[in-house]
Amino acid sequence: MKLKEIPISIYTSLKLSKLSNEVLKNKTKDEIPVIVSLTSIPTRLPTLHLTIKSILNQEVRPKAIILWLHHSLENKIPKKLERLEDDLFHIKYSDLTCSHRKLIHTIELYPNDNIITCDDDMMYHPNWLRLLYLEHLEHPKSIIGNQTRYIQYSKTGEVLPYKEWVYTNENSFNPNAVIAIGAEGILYPPYVLSDKTTDSDLFLKLTPKADDLWFKGMAILKGTIVISAKKRAKTPIPIIGSQKKSLKKQNISGDENRNQWVALTEYFNIETEIFL
Q1: Does domain 3-275 correspond to CATH entry 3.90.550.10?
Q2: Rounded to two decimals, what is the model's pTM?
Protein backbone atom coordinates (compact mmCIF):
# COMPACT_ATOMS: atom_id res chain seq x y z
CA MET A 1 0.00 0.00 0.00
CA LYS A 2 1.24 3.48 -0.88
CA LEU A 3 1.57 6.04 1.93
CA LYS A 4 -0.94 8.38 0.27
CA GLU A 5 -3.58 5.60 0.26
CA ILE A 6 -3.58 5.16 4.04
CA PRO A 7 -5.95 8.07 4.98
CA ILE A 8 -8.61 7.14 2.40
CA SER A 9 -8.33 3.48 3.41
CA ILE A 10 -8.92 4.30 7.06
CA TYR A 11 -11.82 6.63 6.22
CA THR A 12 -13.52 4.12 3.91
CA SER A 13 -13.03 1.26 6.36
CA LEU A 14 -14.68 3.23 9.15
CA LYS A 15 -17.52 4.34 6.88
CA LEU A 16 -18.28 0.79 5.76
CA SER A 17 -17.98 -0.58 9.30
CA LYS A 18 -20.74 1.76 10.48
CA LEU A 19 -23.22 0.62 7.83
CA SER A 20 -25.87 -1.68 9.29
CA ASN A 21 -26.88 -4.94 7.67
CA GLU A 22 -30.35 -3.51 7.08
CA VAL A 23 -28.93 -0.67 5.01
CA LEU A 24 -26.56 -2.93 3.11
CA LYS A 25 -29.22 -5.48 2.23
CA ASN A 26 -31.66 -2.98 0.77
CA LYS A 27 -33.87 -5.01 -1.56
CA THR A 28 -35.40 -1.96 -3.21
CA LYS A 29 -32.27 -1.44 -5.35
CA ASP A 30 -32.41 -2.37 -9.01
CA GLU A 31 -31.03 -5.86 -9.54
CA ILE A 32 -28.69 -6.56 -12.44
CA PRO A 33 -28.12 -10.05 -13.90
CA VAL A 34 -24.61 -10.70 -12.59
CA ILE A 35 -23.06 -12.89 -9.92
CA VAL A 36 -20.07 -11.51 -8.03
CA SER A 37 -17.56 -14.23 -7.19
CA LEU A 38 -14.34 -14.06 -5.19
CA THR A 39 -12.03 -16.10 -3.01
CA SER A 40 -9.75 -15.42 -0.06
CA ILE A 41 -6.98 -16.74 2.16
CA PRO A 42 -6.77 -17.11 5.97
CA THR A 43 -4.68 -13.98 6.54
CA ARG A 44 -7.36 -11.79 4.93
CA LEU A 45 -10.38 -13.16 6.75
CA PRO A 46 -10.26 -10.53 9.55
CA THR A 47 -10.76 -7.69 7.05
CA LEU A 48 -12.75 -9.48 4.37
CA HIS A 49 -16.06 -8.14 5.67
CA LEU A 50 -14.99 -4.71 4.38
CA THR A 51 -14.70 -6.00 0.82
CA ILE A 52 -18.07 -7.74 1.07
CA LYS A 53 -19.70 -4.65 2.58
CA SER A 54 -18.37 -2.54 -0.28
CA ILE A 55 -20.04 -4.93 -2.74
CA LEU A 56 -23.28 -4.94 -0.78
CA ASN A 57 -23.13 -1.14 -0.74
CA GLN A 58 -23.23 -0.84 -4.54
CA GLU A 59 -25.76 1.36 -6.34
CA VAL A 60 -27.27 -1.78 -7.85
CA ARG A 61 -27.83 -5.25 -6.46
CA PRO A 62 -26.27 -8.38 -8.05
CA LYS A 63 -28.14 -11.69 -8.22
CA ALA A 64 -25.68 -13.17 -5.74
CA ILE A 65 -22.30 -12.70 -4.09
CA ILE A 66 -20.33 -15.91 -3.62
CA LEU A 67 -17.17 -16.28 -1.54
CA TRP A 68 -15.15 -19.46 -2.09
CA LEU A 69 -12.94 -20.65 0.77
CA HIS A 70 -11.01 -23.81 1.48
CA HIS A 71 -12.81 -26.45 3.56
CA SER A 72 -10.29 -26.01 6.37
CA LEU A 73 -11.81 -22.61 7.14
CA GLU A 74 -15.39 -23.78 7.68
CA ASN A 75 -15.29 -23.18 11.43
CA LYS A 76 -12.99 -20.17 11.32
CA ILE A 77 -15.22 -17.48 9.82
CA PRO A 78 -15.02 -14.17 11.75
CA LYS A 79 -18.33 -13.00 13.20
CA LYS A 80 -18.21 -9.76 11.22
CA LEU A 81 -18.15 -11.77 8.02
CA GLU A 82 -20.54 -14.49 9.15
CA ARG A 83 -23.24 -11.94 10.03
CA LEU A 84 -23.35 -10.76 6.42
CA GLU A 85 -24.51 -14.14 5.10
CA ASP A 86 -28.08 -14.21 3.81
CA ASP A 87 -30.00 -14.94 0.60
CA LEU A 88 -27.66 -12.59 -1.32
CA PHE A 89 -24.21 -13.31 0.13
CA HIS A 90 -23.12 -16.95 0.35
CA ILE A 91 -19.95 -18.58 1.66
CA LYS A 92 -19.11 -21.84 -0.11
CA TYR A 93 -16.21 -24.23 0.27
CA SER A 94 -13.75 -25.91 -2.05
CA ASP A 95 -11.01 -28.54 -1.98
CA LEU A 96 -8.81 -26.25 -4.07
CA THR A 97 -6.30 -23.87 -2.51
CA CYS A 98 -5.56 -21.87 -5.71
CA SER A 99 -7.14 -18.58 -6.80
CA HIS A 100 -8.80 -20.21 -9.83
CA ARG A 101 -11.62 -21.31 -7.55
CA LYS A 102 -13.07 -17.79 -7.54
CA LEU A 103 -14.41 -18.38 -11.05
CA ILE A 104 -14.41 -22.06 -11.98
CA HIS A 105 -16.82 -23.23 -9.27
CA THR A 106 -19.25 -20.42 -9.99
CA ILE A 107 -19.16 -21.25 -13.70
CA GLU A 108 -20.05 -24.83 -12.81
CA LEU A 109 -22.98 -23.71 -10.64
CA TYR A 110 -24.22 -20.90 -12.88
CA PRO A 111 -23.15 -21.64 -16.48
CA ASN A 112 -25.78 -19.31 -17.98
CA ASP A 113 -24.96 -16.22 -15.91
CA ASN A 114 -22.67 -13.22 -16.18
CA ILE A 115 -19.98 -13.56 -13.53
CA ILE A 116 -17.86 -10.74 -12.12
CA THR A 117 -14.71 -11.66 -10.24
CA CYS A 118 -12.86 -9.31 -7.91
CA ASP A 119 -10.13 -9.31 -5.28
CA ASP A 120 -10.52 -9.75 -1.54
CA ASP A 121 -8.18 -6.97 -0.38
CA MET A 122 -10.02 -4.01 -1.89
CA MET A 123 -13.01 -1.79 -1.12
CA TYR A 124 -15.02 -1.01 -4.24
CA HIS A 125 -16.66 2.34 -5.01
CA PRO A 126 -20.50 2.29 -5.08
CA ASN A 127 -20.71 2.72 -8.87
CA TRP A 128 -18.21 -0.08 -9.62
CA LEU A 129 -20.75 -2.80 -10.34
CA ARG A 130 -23.11 -0.61 -12.36
CA LEU A 131 -20.39 0.78 -14.62
CA LEU A 132 -18.89 -2.63 -15.30
CA TYR A 133 -22.30 -4.00 -16.25
CA LEU A 134 -23.03 -1.04 -18.53
CA GLU A 135 -19.74 -1.73 -20.32
CA HIS A 136 -20.87 -5.33 -20.76
CA LEU A 137 -24.09 -4.19 -22.42
CA GLU A 138 -22.01 -2.46 -25.09
CA HIS A 139 -19.81 -5.55 -25.62
CA PRO A 140 -22.01 -8.52 -24.60
CA LYS A 141 -19.79 -11.23 -26.12
CA SER A 142 -16.47 -9.98 -24.73
CA ILE A 143 -14.68 -10.33 -21.41
CA ILE A 144 -14.49 -6.89 -19.78
CA GLY A 145 -11.60 -5.91 -17.51
CA ASN A 146 -11.27 -2.73 -15.49
CA GLN A 147 -7.53 -3.35 -15.32
CA THR A 148 -5.69 -4.91 -18.24
CA ARG A 149 -2.21 -5.63 -19.53
CA TYR A 150 -0.90 -6.21 -23.02
CA ILE A 151 1.00 -9.43 -23.73
CA GLN A 152 4.30 -8.52 -25.38
CA TYR A 153 6.60 -10.64 -27.52
CA SER A 154 10.02 -9.85 -28.97
CA LYS A 155 10.56 -9.62 -32.73
CA THR A 156 11.97 -13.13 -32.60
CA GLY A 157 8.81 -14.50 -31.00
CA GLU A 158 9.90 -14.82 -27.38
CA VAL A 159 7.53 -13.67 -24.66
CA LEU A 160 8.88 -10.64 -22.81
CA PRO A 161 9.03 -10.32 -18.98
CA TYR A 162 5.67 -9.65 -17.36
CA LYS A 163 6.74 -6.16 -16.28
CA GLU A 164 6.90 -5.26 -19.99
CA TRP A 165 3.35 -6.39 -20.71
CA VAL A 166 2.12 -2.85 -21.35
CA TYR A 167 0.55 -1.24 -24.39
CA THR A 168 3.05 1.12 -25.99
CA ASN A 169 2.50 1.36 -29.75
CA GLU A 170 -0.79 2.80 -30.99
CA ASN A 171 -0.13 1.65 -34.55
CA SER A 172 0.31 -2.01 -33.68
CA PHE A 173 -2.57 -2.59 -31.25
CA ASN A 174 -3.75 -6.20 -31.31
CA PRO A 175 -6.95 -7.02 -29.38
CA ASN A 176 -5.79 -10.63 -28.95
CA ALA A 177 -2.94 -9.41 -26.73
CA VAL A 178 -5.18 -7.75 -24.10
CA ILE A 179 -5.41 -9.67 -20.81
CA ALA A 180 -7.72 -8.80 -17.92
CA ILE A 181 -6.18 -8.50 -14.43
CA GLY A 182 -8.41 -9.41 -11.52
CA ALA A 183 -7.82 -6.68 -8.94
CA GLU A 184 -10.37 -4.13 -10.18
CA GLY A 185 -12.98 -6.56 -11.45
CA ILE A 186 -13.52 -8.72 -14.55
CA LEU A 187 -16.88 -9.54 -16.15
CA TYR A 188 -17.23 -12.92 -17.87
CA PRO A 189 -20.39 -13.46 -19.94
CA PRO A 190 -21.57 -17.07 -20.21
CA TYR A 191 -19.87 -19.40 -22.70
CA VAL A 192 -16.86 -17.19 -23.48
CA LEU A 193 -14.29 -19.65 -22.12
CA SER A 194 -13.14 -23.06 -23.33
CA ASP A 195 -14.75 -26.22 -21.98
CA LYS A 196 -11.33 -27.01 -20.49
CA THR A 197 -11.60 -24.06 -18.09
CA THR A 198 -12.63 -26.17 -15.11
CA ASP A 199 -9.99 -28.88 -15.69
CA SER A 200 -8.15 -28.59 -12.36
CA ASP A 201 -5.45 -31.08 -13.33
CA LEU A 202 -4.48 -28.87 -16.26
CA PHE A 203 -4.50 -25.46 -14.58
CA LEU A 204 -2.67 -26.77 -11.55
CA LYS A 205 -0.02 -28.14 -13.88
CA LEU A 206 0.32 -25.14 -16.21
CA THR A 207 -0.69 -22.02 -14.26
CA PRO A 208 -0.93 -22.99 -10.57
CA LYS A 209 -0.37 -19.42 -9.35
CA ALA A 210 -1.82 -17.37 -12.22
CA ASP A 211 -5.56 -17.68 -12.69
CA ASP A 212 -5.68 -14.55 -14.90
CA LEU A 213 -3.31 -16.23 -17.36
CA TRP A 214 -5.34 -19.42 -17.32
CA PHE A 215 -8.61 -17.63 -18.06
CA LYS A 216 -6.93 -15.62 -20.83
CA GLY A 217 -5.74 -18.85 -22.40
CA MET A 218 -9.22 -20.32 -22.15
CA ALA A 219 -10.64 -17.19 -23.82
CA ILE A 220 -8.19 -17.58 -26.71
CA LEU A 221 -9.20 -21.20 -27.21
CA LYS A 222 -12.81 -20.06 -27.41
CA GLY A 223 -12.02 -17.13 -29.73
CA THR A 224 -13.15 -14.53 -27.16
CA ILE A 225 -11.71 -11.01 -27.07
CA VAL A 226 -10.82 -9.20 -23.83
CA ILE A 227 -11.74 -5.51 -23.71
CA SER A 228 -10.47 -2.82 -21.36
CA ALA A 229 -13.41 -0.91 -19.88
CA LYS A 230 -13.58 2.70 -21.01
CA LYS A 231 -15.95 3.97 -18.33
CA ARG A 232 -14.91 2.51 -15.01
CA ALA A 233 -15.14 3.39 -11.38
CA LYS A 234 -12.24 4.95 -9.52
CA THR A 235 -9.48 2.54 -8.54
CA PRO A 236 -10.60 0.37 -5.59
CA ILE A 237 -9.22 1.31 -2.19
CA PRO A 238 -6.79 -1.20 -0.66
CA ILE A 239 -7.46 -2.45 2.86
CA ILE A 240 -4.65 -1.74 5.32
CA GLY A 241 -2.69 -4.84 6.27
CA SER A 242 -4.37 -7.12 3.73
CA GLN A 243 -1.62 -7.14 1.12
CA LYS A 244 1.37 -8.44 3.09
CA LYS A 245 0.98 -11.84 1.42
CA SER A 246 0.34 -11.66 -2.30
CA LEU A 247 0.74 -13.97 -5.29
CA LYS A 248 1.15 -10.88 -7.41
CA LYS A 249 4.46 -10.01 -5.74
CA GLN A 250 5.79 -13.56 -6.14
CA ASN A 251 4.74 -13.87 -9.77
CA ILE A 252 6.16 -10.51 -10.85
CA SER A 253 9.41 -10.49 -8.86
CA GLY A 254 10.32 -14.00 -10.00
CA ASP A 255 8.80 -13.56 -13.46
CA GLU A 256 6.63 -16.59 -12.73
CA ASN A 257 3.88 -15.10 -14.88
CA ARG A 258 6.05 -15.36 -17.97
CA ASN A 259 7.05 -18.94 -17.16
CA GLN A 260 3.45 -20.00 -16.65
CA TRP A 261 2.30 -18.25 -19.82
CA VAL A 262 4.95 -20.08 -21.83
CA ALA A 263 3.83 -23.39 -20.34
CA LEU A 264 0.20 -22.70 -21.21
CA THR A 265 0.77 -21.52 -24.79
CA GLU A 266 3.12 -24.40 -25.55
CA TYR A 267 0.72 -26.99 -24.18
CA PHE A 268 -2.21 -25.70 -26.23
CA ASN A 269 -0.09 -24.83 -29.27
CA ILE A 270 -1.24 -21.22 -29.20
CA GLU A 271 0.62 -19.49 -32.02
CA THR A 272 2.82 -16.51 -31.13
CA GLU A 273 1.70 -14.75 -34.31
CA ILE A 274 -1.75 -13.93 -32.94
CA PHE A 275 -0.17 -11.55 -30.41
CA LEU A 276 2.15 -9.73 -32.84
Answers
A1: yes
A2: 0.94
